[in-house]
């Protein structure tokens, strides 16, 4: 009997199998069966994420219990104080999110570990805040972030409200992998143990809102802009509208997308990286002559931006909106004499060079991390202890930023408030945010940033992604699209190659990422997604103009497609 069939039979015949999964298991095709059981679902760059449904490679009540029991074992080994400090638990609008969250709380209680569970859906950044505010040992967030409706996921946080970095995650994974029978775990606890579960809500909300409002640099700016806002059926709806109301901004919500709908019925996609997320918001913007469109993903850690410019709406990339945020924040800190000593900004190895140049213009150094905001959170924690540098900003190309680190994850409510303030400030100067971006291009050079994701599902897809990276390592390109590769970085082998010289790449956890720097000032990076069945290609292309940068981007994308046979 094959391993897949063995795992399948175990599930089908197990007395503790949740009854809801019986029909799905019985009706599986051989291909579906293989995809659901060929491997065990694993932690990636943002925890554990996958398709909902029965199977060892799926998100379901049994795989979540296995993860939570492993986490509970890890907490218990940290000692009685960790168990008493407890775990904060949040969840988004997705199918089973609330049920899974409260089941996690019960299972922790069964292990005599205290928990604090939100009464209803809340943003991921508020969960991070709650861990810190309640002085918890850690946190659990049930969410699949910006993924489609078929997904759900599980993120773990440390006592600083930061997602577990590899050194900690590996300890939890060790505990999880030691559990042989996920189906044998139940969450039944005694009435006395049940008292360890505390439901939280408005008290934490209020403290979070106060902290978000504290990021304002010009709270008295004239607020004569119109903002169309969409939470894409997710958790940003109440917090963003509440913060806007308190700060005095006019917010026009996309009503059809404000219901916490797990099927995302009124949006083609809940992902701000994709054009479909803006369709209804654009309609609202045109009808209301709005200045700005802001769109958040379901767990409210990412924010997409649309700007009215010369009568048309321009949607910015995460790199562009991040650069505009940096320009506004740094310019205001400098103007008001609030720039700290030894200021530092954090972004990732696949984030555009533009933001770094903007920061440098104001004397702010930039430190790069691997993809995953936990690595930025780790840097924040480091300097919180050493005081060598002072945090100014952190962001990723994937539409996520953090203004003030009272949260240790991407925070869309913060970003929405800062973008509203920036748009209002620049409007008084007769400029919109695209004008600001164009000004940055004039000062620092024109860039076009893009990401192309090659989706390859199932076991065959996972093998093909590994093959693409392996082939690039085996036969490293000396040129791409006829342009010389002047430097290459391999984050898995920890090497830097410049010409015939090979040196060690330090300061990063080993990761399957390749980055190529080109003679024209551009770069291209390749990495497998840690949360989706995708191989991602990142492009930061420098041109003499927007048109030139775009033409070069198209050519480079085609060249990489040919180079990788994708």
UniProtKB/TrEMBL annotation:
Leader sequence residues: none
Q: Does the keyword Zinc apply?
A: no
**Where do the Alpha-D-phosphohexomutase alpha/beta/alpha domain residues begin and end?**
42-180, 210-310, 325-442
PROSITE patterns from the entry? PGM_PMM (PS00710)
The prosthetic group or cofactor this protein requires is: Mg(2+)
Q: What class of enzyme is it?
A: isomerase
Pathway the protein acts in: Lipid metabolism; Glycolipid metabolism; diglucosyl-diacylglycerol biosynthesis
Q: Does the keyword ATP-binding apply?
A: no
What SUPFAM superfamilies is this protein classified in?
A: Phosphoglucomutase, C-terminal domain, Phosphoglucomutase, first 3 domains
Q: Which domain of life is it from?
A: Bacteria
Q: What is its EC number?
A: 5.4.2.2
Q: Indicate the family of this protein.
A: Belongs to the phosphohexose mutase family.
Q: What is this protein called?
A: Phosphoglucomutase
- What organism does the UniProt record list as the source? Faecalicoccus acidiformans
């Amino acid at each position: 009997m094959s391993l897949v069939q063995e795992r399948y039979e175990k599930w089908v015949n197990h007395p503790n199998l949740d009854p809801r999964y019986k029909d799905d298991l019985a009706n599986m095709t051989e291909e579906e069966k293989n995809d659901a059981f060929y491997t065990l679902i694993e932690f990636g760059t943002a925890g554990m994420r996958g398709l909902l449904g029965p199977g060892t490679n799926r998100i379901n009540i049994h795989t979540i219990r296995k993860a939570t029991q492993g986490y509970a074992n890890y907490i218990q080994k940290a000692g009685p104080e960790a168990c008493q400090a407890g775990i904060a638990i949040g969840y988004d609008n997705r199918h089973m999110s609330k049920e899974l969250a409260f089941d996690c709380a019960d299972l922790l209680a069964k292990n005599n570990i205290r928990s604090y569970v939100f009464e209803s859906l809340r943003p991921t950044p508020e969960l991070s805040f709650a861990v810190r505010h309640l002085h918890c040992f850690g946190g659990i967030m049930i969410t699949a972030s910006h993924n489609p409706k078929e997904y759900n996921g599980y993120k773990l946080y440390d006592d600083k409200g930061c997602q577990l970095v590899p050194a900690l995650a590996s300890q939890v994974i060790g505990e999880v992998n030691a559990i042989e029978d996920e189906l044998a775990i139940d969450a039944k606890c005694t009435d006395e143990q049940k008292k360890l579960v505390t439901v939280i809500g408005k008290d934490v909300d209020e403290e979070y809102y106060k902290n978000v409002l504290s990021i304002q640099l010009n709270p008295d700016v004239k607020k004569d802009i119109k903002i169309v806002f969409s939470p894409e059926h997710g958790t940003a709806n109440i917090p963003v509208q509440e913060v806007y109301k308190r700060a005095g901004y006019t917010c026009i919500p996309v009503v059809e997308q404000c219901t916490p709908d797990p099927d995302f019925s009124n949006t083609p996609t809940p992902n701000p990286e994709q054009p479909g997320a803006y369709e209804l918001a654009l309609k609202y913007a045109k009808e209301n002559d709005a200045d700005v469109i802001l769109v958040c993903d379901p767990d409210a850690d990412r924010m997409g931006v649309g700007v009215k410019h010369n009568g048309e709406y321009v949607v910015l990339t995460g790199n562009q909106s991040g650069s505009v945020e940096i320009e506004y924040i740094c310019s205001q800190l400098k103007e008001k004499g609030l720039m700290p000593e030894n200021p530092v900004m954090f972004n990732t190895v696949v984030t555009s060079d533009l933001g770094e140049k903007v920061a440098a213009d104001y004397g702010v150094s930039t430190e790069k991390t691997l993809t995953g905001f936990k690595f930025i959170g780790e840097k924040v924690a480091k300097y919180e202890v050493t005081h060598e540098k002072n945090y100014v900003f952190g962001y990723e190309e994937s539409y996520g930023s953090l203004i003030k680190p009272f949260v240790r994850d991407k925070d869309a409510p913060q970003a929405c408030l800062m973008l509203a303030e920036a748009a209002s400030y620049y409007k008084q100067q007769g400029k919109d945010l695209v004008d600001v971006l164009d000004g940055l291009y004039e000062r620092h050079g024109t860039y076009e940033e893009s990401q192309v994701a090659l989706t390859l599902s199932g076991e065959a897809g996972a093998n093909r992604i590994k093959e693409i990276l392996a082939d690039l390592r085996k036969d490293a390109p000396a040129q791409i699209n006829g342009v010389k590769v002047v430097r290459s970085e391999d984050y898995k082998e920890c090497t830097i190659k410049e010409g015939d010289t090979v040196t060690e790449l330090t300061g990063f956890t080993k990761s399957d990422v390749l980055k190529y720097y080109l003679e024209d000032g551009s770069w291209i990076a390749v990495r497998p997604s840690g949360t989706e069945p995708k191989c991602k290609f990142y492009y930061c292309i420098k041109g003499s103009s927007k048109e030139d940068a775009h033409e070069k981007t198209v050519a480079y994308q085609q060249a990489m497609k040919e180079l990788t046979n994708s």
